[in-house]
Amino acid sequence: MIRDILLIAGKDLRIEGRSRIGVAQVLPFALLVLLLFAFALDPDRGVLQAATPGLFWVTVLFASVLALQRNFGIEAEDGIIDALRLSGIAPASIYLGKVLALIVQLAALELVLVAAVAVFYNTDFHGVPLLVAIAAATTVGIAATGSIYGALAARLRSRDTILPLLILPLLAPVLISATRGSEVALRGEAGTGWSWAALLGLFAGAYLVVGAVLFSPLLEDA
Amino acid sequence: MTPSNSASDTATDSAPTGSRSALTSTSSTGSRALGAAALITVALGIVYGLIISPPDAKLGSTVRIIYLHVPTVLAAYLAFIITAVGSAMYLFKKTEFWDLLASSAAEIGVIFFAVTIIDGALWGKVTWGVFWRWEPRLTTSAVLLLMYIGYLAIRALPADPHTRATRSAIVGLVAVVNIPIVHKAVDWWRGIHQGQTVLGTVDPNMAGNQLFAMYMSMLAGILVFVWLLIHRFRVGYLTERTEDVALAEAIEARRLENVGHGG
Lengths: 222, 263
Known about the structure:
The complex is a heterodimer of chains A (222) and B (263).
Chain A: H1 2-19, H2 21-40, H3 47-76, H4 80-86, H5 91-120, H6 128-154, H7 159-170, H8 172-186, H9 190-221
Helix pairs in contact in A: 1-5, 2-3, 2-5, 3-5, 3-6, 3-8, 5-6, 5-9, 6-7, 6-8, 6-9, 8-9
Chain B: H1 6-11, H2 29-52, H3 66-93, H4 96-127, H5 136-156, H6 161-194, H7 198-202, H8 208-260
């Protein structure tokens, strides 16, 4: 099973390594959004600094939607989903492989965005262990839910509009928790922040299980 | 991949109204009795809620909005639970019954939830002076409403019945898992700032006619919901049947055409 998961994840990452859609399109888009927030919220009045955690995670969410569309768009074309089913790999392994590939891509995206926020928004980083825990749990949560809905939407003609409508309300508690937790961490008071990280971990864990269970009917019938 | 006649295969073991001849109407003796009971409780709820029950000591007559607010939110949550159960059962049983039950409940749940948010906002305008405050329950409701609008959007996409049912069942299950998490996140976020909500403080003080009006309107809300659910289910069932008939007729017409042209 581990081998199958790594195989699927490796396949997705190789496709990304060769096509560079993520690096050439999703990442520049995310940086652009960070700039747009600076234009919308005057950087001189401190609004930008105060809102940094929220803006960071909203940017991650928007970029995730694009990354999802890309990661599952490649399966939808040329009947690849049927080919995957024919490969004999268990649906749960396919799901976890897609999740893993997304986690790697989102983590890379977040690293670049952190550097961008540090430069453009002049952020001082405190409570780094808590920030890392929150980022890890959030990334797994986005990948876990995104892979369910990404696969569901991939074969629909209206996938570009239906995916954000499905995924963004689902991620509302993730945005709330990641933003509040990061605010607490940046203020340097780790204490209450860990309960946000725990809630994010619960979300990620719950949806990993849901996704592994639901991927079989999803691949076969949806 | 999926046989397009799967709906008609499973239709016979899930026929909601006994015989074929009964399918010309969505009402039955049972649903008429339920409808009558719903009407009576709604009438009692209105009389007690608007006239007999006294105004609240602090909130005055605005408290009466709660006699609509609580029943609708109660019915909406009931609807979303039914959607989740129907979705899970569909994935096990693959019968049209569970799919129709889940989707009918979701549709009514969304309407009841929208009513809850609108009357909550009206109450807010009267009590707080603003339509919207980021009050935990209103915020949670808004998120859940959008989530289930997504369910209806998936549902509205044209597909063969089995594919559409599987898609909606997956969305129905994914959505329900999120309900407690949304609650927790929003409570932690907003609850810290303003303690107990005003709507939350009304309930314990209720007594006598206020309490009776509350229970009566809650009962009315549930009865109206169940009545609507039965009818929505039957309408959905008949819709599927007309689609089957229309397809069969089209095929028949096409065949006759071929015969006419001499093959």
